[in-house]
Amino acid sequence: SLPDCRVASIGLGKVQYYCTSDNNKDGPPKPALGDAPSAEKAGAAKASPSALVRAVLKKREYGPKYTQNNFITAVRAMNEFCLKPSDLEQLRKIRRRSPHDDTEAFTVFLRSDVEAKALDVWGSQEALARERNLRKEVEREYQENIFRNQQLLKEYKDFWGNTQVKSKKSIHSLASISNNGLNFFFKLLAWVYTGSASMFSEAIHSLADTCNQGLLALGISQSVRNPDAGHPYGFSNMRYIASLISGVGIFMMGAGLSWYHGIMGLLHPEPIESLLWAYCILAGSLVSEGATLLVAINEIRKSAQKNGLSFYEYVMQSRDPSTNVVLLEDAAAVLGVILAAGCMGLTSLTGNPYYDSLGSLGVGTLLGAVSAFLIYTNTEALLGRSIQAERVQKLTEFLENDPAVRAIHDVKATDMGLSKVRFKAEVDFDGRVVTRSYLEKQDIDQILNDIQQVKTPEELENFMLKHGENIIDTLGAEVDRLEKELKQRNPEVRHVDLEIL
């Protein structure tokens, strides 16, 4: 190991350098010859009643890369160094605090021991590298086989039908898809029969709603997938992504085609046939769209009450994008039906087809407003929106009420979707409380006896290093305790990152 250099200050302004090595077992450190004081100076220092001795550790230079104190797990040792469990049985085992909630401690190995064992097993670095490449190729083929099996399983489920019970939101989305699809079919027939521009806009409106509900159902199914190595925080944002694409689709397909057909109707007006069947279809559409709108309103009201928000706040903050899309699309559909029916009625009374074209432009404008709102709210959600200030204050106060915490700084609590929260904060710990927590678990008489045995700077260093390392472990345990208690008291908090200040 590297030598440990000390400085002893004797008298006023007189410095004596000591260099000690961890391998020195012959007694206390000896002064370096080049810096040894003369006999006259030493006698003067000894005679001085105000002589003070202070041992100072010089900072060690570890270099740009130092891995002698690194620990690695058994799985990593076997994967990176191509070792077997029997090889690891011969190495030193160290119990460390586990980073996972389901286990308190786990076994690790010194990286230097593992590297030495790998060289002993494989003979050279070149042989180890060849074995690594061979195993990577086998792993790649294994992953390809798994992918092919997953594809076959998916095709099998698609062929025989997936019997998995769907969530309530998925059922609502499928019902909305069926409802909008039927509305599109009947409105399209009415447009072909009457030639009404307003009816064409309503048909396009229902088609856009059908496609967007399909996107929404896909987003819901993807958002409940379990996290994996490539996506450690899960796929909950897929709902926002699907809703964002839905907003763009409404604008391009719904608003764009409605405006185009309305403008063409103003430039080239055509006579309109009997609108009786169109009125009947609009009436049926109003009933079906109104029913789904009431269901969406009830769902949002319940969710808003559960989160302690008003109906307006819940919608504006896009807490549930799937329900919000259904709400806005159904509200726009109801208003669009009323607007189209009114414009078609004016056309029937006056015989002027311009009113019908204006109805198409009005429906297009309505769809454009809905799409703009969806794009804005879901973009804000994807950017990482903070949770309510009251909830942030509640989480902060819980940490500050702990005796081991002096202060909390730089708090960030973001909504991850699906009622999941990620919490991050800088924690200023009370070192005296943490140290007392460590001492409460120790034999004080034994520590006192160890202190009395300290006679040399080397013995003092070993004593301080031993208890200093244990206190650092205690500090880490305090961080784990706070994170665990924060999650238990606040189930919506799924990921906690507490950084020591």
UniProtKB/TrEMBL annotation:
Keyword Nucleotidyltransferase: no
A Pfam short name: Cation_efflux
Transmembrane segments: 240-263, 275-297, 326-351, 357-376
A biological-process GO annotation: intracellular zinc ion homeostasis
Cellular compartment(s): Endoplasmic reticulum; Mitochondrion membrane; Nucleus
Protein's UniProt keywords contain Mitochondrion: yes
Catalytic activity: Zn(2+)(in) + 2 H(+)(out) = Zn(2+)(out) + 2 H(+)(in)
Example of a GO MF term: antiporter activity
NCBIfam families according to UniProt: CDF (TIGR01297)
PANTHER family per the UniProt record, alphabetical: HUEL-CATION TRANSPORTER, PROTON-COUPLED ZINC ANTIPORTER SLC30A9, MITOCHONDRIAL
UniProt name for this protein: Proton-coupled zinc antiporter SLC30A9, mitochondrial
Record organism: Echeneis naucrates (Live sharksucker)
